[in-house]
Prior knowledge:
The chain is about 50% helix and about 10% strand. It contains 14 helices and 6 strands. It has helices spanning about 10-20, 35-45, 90-100, 110-120, 125-135, 140-145, 155-180, 180-185, 190-200, 245-260, 275-285, 295-325, 330-345, 345-360; strands at about 25-30, 45-55, 210-215, 220-225, 230-235, 265-275. Strand 3 and strand 4 (about 220-225) form a beta hairpin. Helix 7 packs antiparallel against helix 14 (about 345-360) and helix 11 (about 275-285) runs antiparallel to helix 12 (about 295-325). The longest helix is centred in the last third of the chain and has 31 residues, at about 295-325. The two termini are about 40 Å apart.
Amino acid sequence: MPSTWCTIESTPGIFHHLVSSIGVKGVTVKEVFALEPEVVQSIGEPLAFIFCFPIETSADQQPEKPTSATSTPAVPDTLFFANQVIANACGTQAVLHALLNLENLSPHVDLGPTLTEFRDFTKDMRPSARGLCISNSPTLRRVHNGFGQLPTDEEVGLDAARKAIERAAKRGKRKRARAGDSDEESEFDDDESDEEKEEGEEGGEYIAYHFVALVPHAGAVWELDGLKLAPKCIAPMPRPSAAKPWSSLVLSELKNRIKKSEYETFSLLMLTLDQQPILEASLAAAAAPSAEPVEGESRENRDAIERQLRELHEERAGYDREQARARANYLPFIGAFLERLAVRAPAAVVENMVDQHMETLDQ
Length: 363
């Protein structure tokens, strides 16, 4: 029985560390803030995309129709695809779908021993068997669970925080009542049973999010969704002479989906070449004893490289902070803090503070 996998956030810092922790070198992850070709171009050359979206719950969803009039190509044998067989693994599975389908790898890209061995081991397996291999891989599970908190029960995300805070505030009220506020004591005599009822009857909607990969492979652009039975062809790859790159097909597809969705929260991450080793190699070459004297335009180029490296180092420092934050579990502290506050302050004050903060989070 495979162990539990935690939920992870859709942030470039966490996914950058996820890629590097698996052992991949030369690839990084960036966030795409707008579905426009010029935005993607300003970030770098896309290798693949990872799309995070809320799972639709409408009963009247229609089957997806092909986005191109051209006949859908057959799924090539070289396309790596795995079914998702365990909850919460979709983030790492999308990363695997993206990395294991890269074509014409740059000399700067190294998949590392973990992915190379996994790819070779599962090469002739069915998608369902590959999914089992992912969920039962101790290495992949350990790396994945290093970027979030394992759920202790059915409550996850903001709902968990909201319920924990409400419970802490109620415990504080009971302590105040037992400390001598006899007028309120009877109000909380049956709080435990009422609390259990509230947890089962709460009507707030929990939105589940899912990750899929969008990759170019074997002459077509594919969507790889582990919850589907097979890959989906978005469109044939544009010809080399075409004015628009393959990424434009992805952006157009996602725009249409977002327009039709009942939700408004989405995230798009892009896998691209990591410029840090490339820039460091260029800087080392410029500083080598055999290099020509640095003056004029050459000096300007070196200054530009150093500036880009400083920006990358600052970005990676931010990624490190994201990673530390993702691994921290703040709920025990929040619960204990509000419990102490509720003992010392009137219950109405605590409830008002919680309500105001929750309204801020929901915006």
